[in-house]
Amino acid sequence: MKETSYYYVGDRPSRKEAAAATVENVLALSSQTETYPDWIKGILERITGPMPRKYVNQVLVPILLSGKYNGRKLARAIYEACLQDLKARTAVKPSPPSDWARKTPESTSNQKIWEILRPFLSSPTQQVFDYQRNQSYRTEMEWAVKDVQIDLKMETIRKKRPYTLRLIKTQAAYERALKKWKEDVAILERLIEAGVG
Predict the structure, then answer these.
(1) pLDDT band at residue 11 using 50, 70 and 90 as cut-offs
(2) How far apart are CA 99 and CA 142, in angstroms?
(3) What's the Cα-to-Cα distance from 71 to each of 74, 80, 128, 170, 195, rounded to whole Å?
(4) Predicted confidence (pLDDT) per residue in 131-180, tens digit
(5) pLDDT at res. 10
(6) What is the C-alpha separation between 118 and 150, in angstroms, rounded?
(7) Where are the domains of the chain?
(8) What is the pLDDT of residues 37-90, one digit of tens each?
(9) Long-range CB contacts (< 8 A, 24+ apart) of 155-158?
(10) What is the residue-wise DSSP string for 121-170?
(11) DSSP class of 51
């Protein structure tokens, strides 16, 4: 599942900056409203639901780590929500696939291509698939593969005509998941170390 981008192009402020400014403004105002538990509860629900990874890691955690709002009930509640989210995301370390079988994408387009690739993708041992066809067929397959997120890299072998499109299975999804997990562990450790009083 792809996460929503937090950035705009051009002179407009990024969504990340706008979200951070909003949260900071609410935290600044929270010192005046701490005696109203319903307000704290309501605003907390809006700030912490939903909590995409980028929002937690790039907006909420930096604000909490700044220490500007330590001692505020709302900051403490946001801190607890971030801790819970990060602990859930880091509870299980990603592990590499047990074999070379890969799931066929659920693409609604290019079904003909995915039927050609299905036996290769489902094979637990086959790592390389050579597709020797004319340019138009190779291009159609390249577009189909580029149109989805899948653990395949491509290269063209130009030894004889027609050229061969070589597809090679990778562990890119595992490597991405492991990288995110390591980043989340580091952020969790920093957050725990900093605390919010």
Answers:
(1) low
(2) 24
(3) 9, 13, 58, 48, 10
(4) 999 999 999 999 999 999 999 999 999 999 999 999 999 999 999 999 99
(5) 47
(6) 13
(7) 15-93+176-194, 111-170
(8) 888 899 999 999 889 999 999 999 999 999 999 989 999 999 999 999 999 999
(9) 157/130
(10) HH-SS--EEEEE--HHHHHHHHHHHHTS--SEEEEEE-SSSSPEEEEEE-
(11) -
| Helix or strand run (H / E) with residue 27 | helix 15-30
Nearest to 143 by CA among 171, 165, 170, 121: 165
Q: How many residues does the chain have?
A: 197
Cα 196 to Cα 191: distance, rounded to the nearest angstrom: 8
Strand segments, DSSP code E, in the chain are: 128-132, 152-157, 164-169
Six-digit token string for 15: 């969504």
Bridge-partner residues for 128, per DSSP? Answer: 168
Average pLDDT over the chain, rounded to an integer: 90
